[in-house]
Design brief:
By secondary structure, this protein is mainly α. It has six helices and no strands. The longest helix has 24 residues.
């Protein structure tokens, strides 16, 4: 019983602690985007991901992951693929490097030095 409580506590902390960074990102999207329609995809994605993770935590996914060893590695693989795709598709991530936009020197107009 204590083991299940500790695993649930660690999972809950793992779900709650990263939300600070996510909230900063969502607030930044709301402040930077000129219209709600431009910020809405980020807000909806964050809300859906939060709801899914909370649902998994409540239903006891940690017990299933501990009971089925291959499930742990499958979830790890899905997480790595998700983060890799997010990094490649982001404007400042690997997508920019792959398109050759990274490393270019910007030319500034001559004038005051």
């Amino acid at each position: 019983m204590l083991s299940a409580f500790i695993h649930g506590l660690v999972l809950a902390l793992g779900l709650i602690l990263p939300l600070g960074v996510q909230n900063v990102f969502i607030f930044n999207q709301g402040a930077v985007q000129p219209r709600l329609a431009r910020a809405l995809p980020a807000v909806l994605t964050a809300a859906c991901c939060d709801a899914l993770l909370i649902l998994l935590a409540v239903t006891g996914i940690s017990v299933a992951v501990l009971a089925v060893s291959w499930l742990r590695y499958a979830l790890l693989g899905v997480g790595v693929c998700f983060l890799s795709c997010t990094w490649v598709l982001s404007p400042g991530g690997a997508g920019g490097m792959l398109r050759g936009s990274c490393g270019r020197r910007r030319r500034f107009p001559r004038g005051n030095k």
